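task queued by scheduler; priority normal; single chain, no ligands, no partner chains; default sampling; output format set to structure tokens
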Amino acid sequence: MTVLDVLVYCNDVHVWTPGVRYAAELAAGLGATLTGIHVSPPWPTREPPGAPSSLMAELLAHTQEAVRAAMETDARFNAWAGELGVGSVRWYVALGDPAEVLAVASNWNDLTVIDRSIADRDDTTDLICEMLLSGVVCIAVPDNGYALTRFDRIAIAFDGSPACIRALHAAAPLLQHAAHIIIIENKLEQEGCDAPPGPAFDPQRYFSDRGFQVEIDSADGRGTRATAILEAASRNRADLIVCGASGKRHLGECRLDETPRQLLNYAGIPVLMAR
């Protein structure tokens, strides 16, 4: 039996946020390993222009204290995750840019869980976008309340794109626990998302070959495709949305296409995305 590895970004070492708890319960339910990682800012190397000479020492002391507190969280995180039923737990602290650190750490993990800010979407959307376009499989968990870690009803926003197919494969361990799998059919966007050449992927046959029953719904309706997908997910009482994260890098900027960006911003339940 393959053991999965789940990585969770712990931005706050004092409070276990909804995303951190979701990751721990996910790892416990799947028998996966859990790695928590906290990323602190790099050591300051120069004083801000015009600042007093004593400021550099204060900045260094503050950074050192933050790193020390993060490193001392190891035992508390391990004990807390163990109480939730996680058998194998690791804790790491790194210095640097969160997107770069998480992209590297995700190379030896199967899923990366991250809190998605509701109050200030830009605060986390850019980070998640960077990770997705680096090839990381992410589960974005809304931070506006406790998201039950269950997979009884999983909705797949299927448009036939390579990104969507990869997301479906990445979600396979979770789909095995689902009693209801709903395929929400929606058409490909025109922006940078062309139909793949060669034989088309048939999701119904994919699930039939594996003994899964699926339900079909449509993302037809007024408004944007994302709005229609969210309405279909709500109509089917989905616990999780699975979708592709099509997008592009341009002049150092990462940008998701309209539908995955809106799903990321407005979904009230966790969303699993892959590029």
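post-processing summary
- The first strand starts at residue 5 and ends at 9.
- The chain has two domains: 5-142, 153-274.
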